[in-house]
Design a protein that fits this description.
Layout: H1 2-31, H2 43-55, H3 64-80, H4 83-93, H5 100-103, H6 105-133, H7 138-141, H8 148-179, H9 200-203, H10 208-232, H11 240-249, H12 263-273, H13 298-306, H14 312-316, H15 318-321, H16 328-349, H17 359-362, H18 366-371, H19 377-381, H20 388-401, H21 408-420
Length: about 450
């Protein structure tokens, strides 16, 4: 019977890892649909961003209470799952609490720490459920989250609560079986643990056989739940648990107010003014700005897959606050959805065939793009260093430079800049005329 359980566990583990690896490979392929972009400057600052923003969650602590709760849920869940290593080895080798004997009293200390974290994760996830579903927090009520995105967040919180409850119940039944001297459990006596001991009175009336069945059920459901969660991540906004780290490393380090120039345009102007500098093999740019995800960079697509859908960007966006259609969160979700759509097409047809749709117009409307004030509030607020503004600017450049699609007010400004070197309709020679009356 024990050998059968070991074989079942190994097969389950291999299947879970294979499915997870295949989905991660698909996401990597989708991100690489974007154009190349070299990001290799200032490695010291980039590693600092990883430590402060991804690991330390620095931006979350602008709201200290929420930052504290989120940090404990994140850190607690990750640290508690260190115990998964013991569970995996126990499952493969057919042992029970493999690390108890070698670590001795330190093992009890570790499990006690894990249980305190588990209790915190359980309580704080319940608070987050209340915040999302009972309290009327504006960024959680947005229509951006209608349908799957809203359910996704609730599923994850409920799953974490269930996993922590299984962990604590498993420990409570295990230590009860130890105290009763039941074979296989009494080989390593750990004593009661700091939190699960209070669950023991609830299950103390069970027989040894029922207790053993409860412990084994919690053990199996706990590891199955973790493996299921692992494979759920790539389909969920909680993929940011993994992608926050590379996204923080590759975050833009230039000042927020500095816009990215287009070398192709700069070169065209230079060659027009100084033709002798134009290389013999110079070719005109194929496209200005971006129409679809293949025109964006791989970093833009990494941003899209790293989005936590928390809505802090949209909550800080002045256009969104004043009722305009623009939502930076929706920009990121639409970009990811389009990448997924193209990825599925490639997986089915083995190559990308134009489907007649594009990110611009079919996913993101002109009205949304025009509403952006380029204030960088969305970039400032994002806890994982996502830059929705860069995508907006590239799509808007395509509208203006490829489709000549701009309001009359913009065209007037463009004309003034071109002719008068300023947004105003005054000759440069007349610009200081007002001073003559002083």
């Amino acid at each position: 019977m024990q050998i059968a359980q070991q074989i079942l566990f190994v097969l389950l583990f291999i299947v879970a890892v294979v499915f997870f690896s295949k989905k991660i490979a698909q996401i990597r392929r989708n991100i690489n649909l974007g154009r190349d972009e070299a990001i290799d400057d200032q490695p010291g600052q980039r590693w600092r961003n990883v430590l402060l923003l991804a690991l330390g969650q620095k931006k979350m602590f602008r709201n200290p209470l929420v930052g504290f709760l989120h940090f404990f849920v994140y850190a607690g869940f990750i640290i508690i799952n260190i115990e998964v290593l013991e569970i995996i080895l126990d499952g493969v080798l057919g042992t029970h609490r493999l690390f108890a004997a070698p670590l001795g009293s330190f093992y009890t200390f570790l499990i006690n720490a894990f249980e305190l974290l588990a209790l915190a994760v359980l309580a704080f996830c319940a608070i987050f459920l209340v915040r999302r579903n009972i309290l009327k927090i504006r960024r959680f009520l947005s229509k951006d989250l209608n349908g799957w995105p809203r359910s996704d967040a609730n599923y994850i919180l409920i799953t974490e609560i269930a996993l922590m409850a299984l962990f604590l119940t498993m420990n409570a039944s295990d230590t009860l079986l130890q105290s009763r001297g039941v074979e296989h459990y009494a080989t390593h006596f750990t004593g009661n643990f700091i939190v699960s001991q209070y669950i023991q009175p609830l299950i103390g009336g069970l027989s040894d056989g029922s207790l053993e069945l409860l412990e084994r059920a919690c053990w199996w459901l706990h590891i199955i739940g973790i493996l299921a969660f692992l494979n759920y991540l790539p389909f969920s906004k909680h993929l940011h648990i993994l992608l926050a780290f590379p996204n923080a490393y590759y975050a833009r380090l230039k000042p927020m107010g500095e816009m990215e120039n287009m070398p192709a345009v700069q070169n065209e102007v230079l060659y027009a003014m100084q033709p002798e500098l134009a290389p013999a093999d110079a070719t005109p740019p194929t496209r200005f700005g971006a129409k679809d995800i293949t025109d964006l960079s791989w970093k833009n697509l990494l941003d899209a897959y790293s989005c936590t859908e928390c809505g802090r960007c949209s909550a800080a966006c002045p256009a969104n606050i004043t009722g305009k259609l623009l939502s930076p969160r929706k920009i990121m979700m639409d970009t990811r959805d389009r990448a997924e759509e193209i990825g599925k097409s490639i997986a089915g047809q083995k190559e990308w065939k134009d489907d007649g749709k594009s990110l611009l117009h079919d996913y993101i409307s002109v009205e949304e793009l025009r509403a952006c004030t380029t204030c960088n509030a969305c970039v400032q607020e994002c806890p994982v260093s996502i830059n929705p503004l860069d995508i907006i600017l590239q799509l808007r450049r395509y509208l203006v430079m490829e489709e000549s699609n701009a309001p009359q007010e913009w065209n007037a400004m463009f004309s003034n800049v071109e002719n008068n070197f300023a947004p105003w309709k005054f000759s440069p020679d007349d610009r200081d005329g007002w001073t003559q009356t002083l």
